[in-house]
Design goal:
CATH topology of the largest domain in chain A: Rossmann fold
Shape of chain A: globular
Order of helices and strands of chain B: HHHHHHHHHHHH
Oligomer: heterodimer
CATH architecture of chain B: Orthogonal Bundle
Largest interface: A-B, 33 and 26 residues
Distance between the termini of chain B: 65 Å
Number of strands of chain B: 0
Low-confidence stretches of chain A: none
Low-confidence stretches of chain B: none
CATH superfamily of the largest domain in chain A: P-loop containing nucleotide triphosphate hydrolases
Strand order of the largest sheet of chain A: 6-7-8-3-9-10
Radius of gyration of chain B: 20 Å
Number of helices of chain B: 12
Bound molecules: adenosine-5'-triphosphate, magnesium ion
């Protein structure tokens, strides 16, 4: 295996039924260099990287390593060439341990025995050397997203990668973990590693990369040295227009309290107490931000309110009725909307068509259905309008939802939830993995809903987003609300301290 | 009745149960491999039928039981190859293709039986081993050490398959391929090849299970010889939660229920026999209903793998 000194993709074209995901795309990355690959959702970034990794075969185009043409027909080829990839959706086997996951890629000499201890020791060593500590004997399903991220990187390093593709590695990381990752990337390129880094967070892109390549609709549109550009220019090039994120305008009058959580206790999946007597109140027409490092009970909070998780103690009043441990269907029917954290599996049925997912919560009701019979004509026209109105990019409304890009799945869920005219909405990480143009759009829609008197509980880690949208910000820490701030009194540094569990005075 | 005769009855029942469990173990361990890799093979019953016929035919026509058993395995491999092509390469719905394989195996076996054998024929069959010393142990000797060689083969298959699944590189691949094939693929594992291997091994074992019934138990062949054992084997895989030991437990429990039911029928206690016959099946359904836990399930079961499609 030769070291990769330069890697080029030349005139790559990839077509899927109904879309051209990549059209004559060219990129070049040298060892010791970080290239950021930018583009809106569905621009074709992941597709291009999957081609590089041998998961997709391109319709046209070549891959050159050190100037020589190479054939990459399967991930095995890519691994042999020294290319490692951390995928947008992690490629780990949840029912296996960290060591077993790494061992999967090893070609053991002895077919009748695996020496997993040697593997575990090497993982430990690699972890120490690179500051990527994980317990080799832990099961993947017990690890946090950040830890899984580290396992993915260790996997690549273990198998001798000297070129790394990181597809949205920071989408679900905490700000601290992101900083750590960026530092690590700047460190490893000193050993002549080449890196392709994909992200929608432009600030970190300017921090980590040496150069930037922007794709739009599957084509190269812009390439630049990082030190010659800025966040605004990159946003403009990605979206093809100026982007301005909306901010909340102050109002003094709010409606009645619509959702009241009182001293609620609930357990996490692991059986430990995740919510330890949490209390808050959401008014009509208000956006209440929930700040906190993820893993402090946000997921459980969203789930107890929406009926997905059992409440062990406490009360949740929605429209003056205690909805604790009521059925999910009942809570939905009372007018509570939900944008879940795991958009693909909890927010939609991935194998269903776009139109089926759009009416998923109301298909049994008039006008979608009459006398137990679906009304295809009405559904068809309703979904077409919705797709246009919310600018959901999909070949057509009969496309299976999992073929949509992340941002577009998010828009689909948003449109379904908002078009039902909810009384209140729980939005968990609504812009995770979403491009800047779509962020602008989603934020506008959330604010519009607020101005139409919907109460919104906004759970996110992005301080920027919290400060832009919230009327009030509550900080969650270890399953309790540590403090609630009026938005105009909140600052990043104040929130940062509270999120770390420090409460002054 | 005396204490000793009670012991006698129980000993007999246990010995019968051990012998009865062998074909289930073969077929269910085989099906477990197939399912662990993500392929639900509903054709087990048909493959067993064909295996039983093949083994019987060669034992009868050439007077060579070993040849019969080997040929039953060959036929199993071929049926597995068919199932693999249809469900893995052509990505047909696994439920449907499995039923197709079942009917095909059943059809071929009964047609060939009519053509080449025609009526009731019997062979001497595989003899029980006389194991010195161990066979003489009171009670235990009768229960464990007076069986034919295939029973021991079946019992040996349990720890062997456990070792293969959990201690060898190939077993690790199988476990990965059945839960997250895409992740396995990105690690350079050939998902398609691994699934082919598992389905073929599974079918070969089903063929062996069929052979057991015709040349090591009934010593004859008839169209109703398999009598749903292939389907029970599939249920046992769920029952055993995709673990070799679990499968063994299930096979033994079910066989014990069967042995009890047989004894009950001939014991002279007056009771409608239809109900006793149903007893083992009801038992397994009840246990299945209460023991089913999702966590060890190969999550990609029945989902064909397509590299260019994300899901
Ligand atoms: N396997 C597939 N089958 C059909 N269409 C696909 C497939 N994979 C991707 N596409 C389509 O190709 C286009 C590019 O998708 P891709 O996942 O590469 O976007 P992306 O730039 O990575 O977006 P995101 O930022 O949301 O991750 C999209 O329109 C998508 O719907
Ligand atoms: Mg992507």
């Amino acid at each position: 295996m030769n070291k990769i000194l330069s890697l080029e993709m030349v005139n790559i074209t990839k077509r899927f039924p109904g879309v051209i995901a990549n059209q004559d795309v060219n990129i070049k990355v040298n060892a010791g260099e970080v290239m950021a690959l930018l583009g809106e959702n569905g621009a074709g970034k992941t597709t291009l990287m999957n081609i590089l990794y041998g998961l997709y075969n391109p319709n046209e185009g070549d891959i050159l390593i050190n100037g020589k043409k190479v054939k990459i027909r399967s991930p095995q080829n890519a691994l042999d060439l020294g290319i490692g990839m951390v995928h947008q959706h992690f490629m780990l086997v949840p029912s296996l341990t960290v060591t077993e996951n790494v061992a999967l890629g090893i070609n053991f000499k002895n077919k009748f025995k695996m020496d997993l201890k040697v593997v575990a020791d090497k993982i430990k060593k690699l972890g120490e050397k690179n500051n990527l500590n994980v317990d080799p004997n832990a099961y993947i399903s017990q690890l946090s997203v950040g830890e899984q991220q580290r396992v993915e990187i260790i996997k690549a390093l273990y198998h001798g990668a000297n070129f790394l593709v990181l597809d949205e590695p920071t989408a679900a990381l905490t700000p601290q973990e992101t900083d750590q990752l960026i530092k690590w990337i700047r460190e490893i390129i000193k050993d002549d590693m080449g890196v392709i880094f994909i992200s929608h967070k432009l600030k970190e892109v300017t921090e980590v990369s040496d150069k930037v390549e922007v794709l739009r609709d599957g084509k190269n549109v812009f390439s630049v040295q990082t030190n010659k550009t800025n966040v605004d220019e990159l946003a403009r090039e990605m979206a093809g227009r100026d982007i301005e994120l909306p901010t909340v305008d102050k109002k003094n009058e709010f409606g009645d309290v619509v959702l009241k959580v009182e001293d609620v206790w609930a357990k996490s999946d692991k059986g430990t107490d995740a919510l330890k007597g949490i209390s808050l109140a959401l008014k009509k027409g208000e956006i209440l931000g929930i700040a906190g490092v993820s893993g402090n009970g946000q997921k459980e909070l969203a789930e107890v309110i929406t009926g997905f998780r059992k409440v062990n103690k406490g009360k949740i009043n929605f429209k003056d009725e205690n909805i604790v441990n009521k059925s999910i269907q009942y809570i939905i029917d009372q007018g509570l909307g939900f944008i879940p954290e795991d958009r693909l599996h909890m927010g939609t049925v991935p194998g269903f068509k776009v139109k089926e997912n759009l009416i998923l919560k109301d298909y049994l009701k008039y006008p979608f259905c009459k006398n137990f019979i679906l009304k295809p004509k009405y559904i068809e026209s309703y979904c077409k309008t919705t797709v246009d109105e919310y600018d959901i990019k999909c070949p057509n409304i009969n496309t299976p939802t999992h073929a949509l890009s992340g941002g577009n799945i998010q828009k689909l869920i948003l449109s379904r939830e908002l078009k039902r005219n909810p009384v209140a909405l729980v939005a968990s990480y609504p812009i995770r993995g979403v491009d800047i143009g779509a962020i602008e759009y989603i934020h506008e829609k959330l604010l519009e809903a607020r101005n139409n008197d919907v109460g919104i509980l906004l759970i996110t880690e992005e301080l920027e987003e919290l400060l832009n949208l919230s009327d009030r910000i509550a900080v969650i820490y270890e399953g309790k609300i540590l403090d609630i701030l009026e938005a105009d009194k909140a600052t990043k540094s104040k929130l940062g301290l509270l999120m770390a569990g420090v409460k002054e005075g | 009745m005396t204490m000793a005769s009670y012991f006698q009855i129980i000993t007999n029942m246990l010995a019968v149960a051990v012998a009865l469990s062998a074909p289930y173990i073969f077929a269910a361990i085989g099906e477990m491999f197939s399912q662990k890799s993500g392929v639900l093979n509903l054709g087990v019953e048909g493959i067993m039928m064909l295996g039983a016929f093949t083994a019987f035919y060669f034992s009868w026509a050439y007077d060579n039981i070993l040849l019969g058993i080997v040929m039953a395995m060959v036929v199993g491999i071929l049926m597995g190859l068919l199932m693999a092509i249809v469900s893995i390469t052509l990505k047909a719905d696994q439920g449907i293709s499995g039923i197709g394989v079942y009917m095909l195996g059943w059809g071929i076996a009964s047609t060939l039986f009519r053509l080449f054998i025609g009526g009731v024929q019997s062979i001497s069959g595989l003899q029980d081993l006389q194991i010195p010393i161990l066979g003489q142990i009171p009670y235990l000797g009768k229960i464990l050490f007076q069986h034919n060689i295939m029973v021991y083969l079946a019992l040996l298959l349990v720890p062997a398959s456990w070792y293969i699944l959990y201690k060898t590189p190939w077993g690790l691949k199988v476990r990965a391929v059945g839960t997250t094939p895409r992740a396995a693929d990105t690690m350079g594992i050939n998902v398609i090849k691994t699934r082919y291997q598992c389905v073929i091994i599974g079918s070969m074992l089903a063929g062996l299970g069929g052979a057991f019934l015709s040349v090591a138990q009934a010593n004859m062949f008839a169209n109703d010889l398999i009598a749903g054992r292939g389907f029970i084997a599939i249920a046992l895989v769920y029952f055993g939660r995709w673990e070799p030991l679990g499968v063994l437990k299930g096979a033994l429990l079910f066989s014990l229920a069967n042995a009890f039911q047989r004894w009950f029928q001939i014991s002279g206690i007056s009771f409608p026999y239809e109900i006793t016959v149903v007893f083992p099946y009801v038992l397994i359904i009840v246990v299945l209903a209460f023991s089913y836990k999702k966590f060890s399930e190969p999550t990609a079961l029945t989902v064909p793998y397509d590299r260019e499609f994300k899901g």
